[in-house]
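During the reporting period the student researcher (J.K.) took over the structure-prediction task from the postdoctoral fellow and processed the backlog of single-chain submissions. One of the processed entries is reproduced below for the supervisory committee.
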Amino acid sequence: MTKRLNIIVGLAFTLLLIPLVAMQFSEEVNWTLSDFMMAGVLLLSTGFICELLLRRVKKTKHRVVACFIVFVLLFLTWAELAVGIFGTPLAGS
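J.K. obtained the following structure tokens:
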């Protein structure tokens, strides 16, 4: 694994620790195993796609725009899964 891939995996793991720790101190955070798995898939796939874009796209401006679009898609997907802002069947609506 390259250094950037190690950072991506480490960052995803660290971000997943936040709700895990919060569950120990609050009953308002109640994630199931499937929540952690879906969050892990979303975070890792976003990181790996951005890594692929950084390797393939040559111009810095295009890299920034492409990774920004990937992050926007991550946040929209996360919001849809969390609260169903679009009302799709994906969110259980």
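The committee noted the following: The first helix runs from residue 3 to 25.
J.K. will present the remaining backlog at the next meeting.
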